[in-house]
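Workshop exercise sheet. Pairs work together: one partner reads the sequence aloud, the other fills in the structure field after running the prediction. Swap roles for the next sheet.
Pair: D.N. / O.F.
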Amino acid sequence: MTMGFLVFYKYKPMTTEEARRAGEEWKDFKAKNKTAEIIREYDHAYGTEWNGFFLVETEDMASFENFWREFRDSTRWYIESLQAIIGKKR
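Structure field:
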């Protein structure tokens, strides 16, 4: 069974240097990530307070939980808040 996770995020206020560092760390995280597939990334979520969102797919909830733990550990310093919407692929 394939599960999809739509993850909305909001950045903390950052300096230009912090934003550059966050971008580099995000690229590194995606390159090392082996537990979930990031299908698409969107820089804006117009009409909401979110700065953007991305879609992740995994084969089971345990894989997403592993992804989520690694994701939160690496982004905690620059992500202010998150919301995930979970779905199951037909």
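Discussion prompt: The two ends are 8 Å apart (CA to CA). What would you look at next?
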